[in-house]
Amino acid sequence: MKKTIVANWKMNLSVKESLSLAKKVNKMSSQNNIIICPDFLSLVYIKNKLKKINFKLGAQNCAPDSFGSYTGEVCAKNLKDIGAEQVIIGHSERRNIFKEDSLMINKKIQEALKNKLQVILCLGENENEKKAKRTKQVVKKQLQDALKNISNRDISQITIAYEPIWAIGSGKTPQAEEVSLLSKYIKDYIVNKYSKKIKVLYGGSVNLSNYSLFLDQTNIDGLLIGGASLKYSEFSKICR
Ligand code: PGA
Fold first, then answer.
1. Nearest to 226 by CA among 208, 200, 210, 203
2. Which among 93, 129, 163, 234 is annotated as catalytic?
3. Given 91, 93, 111, 125, the catalytic residue
4. Nearest ligand 1 atom to alpha carbon 206
5. Which long-range contacts (CB under 8 A, 24 or more apart) does 129-134 make?
6. Residue 206 in contact with ligand 1 by CB distance below 6 A
7. pTM for the full predicted model
8. pLDDT means per 10 residues in the chain (240 residues)?
9. Superfamily of domain 4-239
10. Rounded alpha-carbon distances, angstroms, from residue 48 to 45, 88, 126, 158, 161
11. Distance between CA 106 and CA 21 in Å, rounded?
12. Where in the chain are the domains?
């Protein structure tokens, strides 16, 4: 089964470094569905510099509206026009550092879908919620809020990335079996609500020594990788 591997480069590379890494990824052979998410400027640069792109380009964020007075934001339409096919929405860094609430996340999803961008919706619990065994409740609430007014037709344009906040960039990960069960919980929630199947990815401290544990689980359809996606040797081995 083809897996989906999303590289979230965050704000870690210069424009030139992004292009150089994108060139390497472009030559890589992989059976899987590879999505590279550089920062906005690097996305445009990569799109312009590479003649033929063998992976999908994704943005790390988009604006909650189509146009207007949103200083510093980039709208989904412009991302689509420039060649992005996907957009990450609701990453915990956006939720926590930039204070994006559930209403904002829902608006961004609607904008992305309206402009024919596929959405990678991130969600997951924090450390206290995990300790209090509230993971399922937290994830359910995040799903309910994010997917408000999302139609049956549009739900198939969304992939969920389950990313426990305590696992992101920390070197700590949950057990793959635990993730598989939660993944199943998310899939069942969507099937009950929409009668549709969706993909669920895992993200948080994925690296060369643990990626296969997650990919071996039938309920996990792929990975969202931060740190390890910046190192070509590591990333290419994971993608293969
Ligand atoms: P990480 O980041 O792989 O560096 O933990 C994942 C993410 O934030 O999406």
1. 203
2. 163
3. 91
4. 3
5. 130/164, 130/166
6. yes
7. 0.97
8. 96 98 95 97 98 96 97 98 98 98 98 98 98 98 98 97 98 97 98 97 98 97 98 96
9. Aldolase class I (3.20.20.70)
10. 5, 21, 39, 27, 28
11. 32
12. 4-239
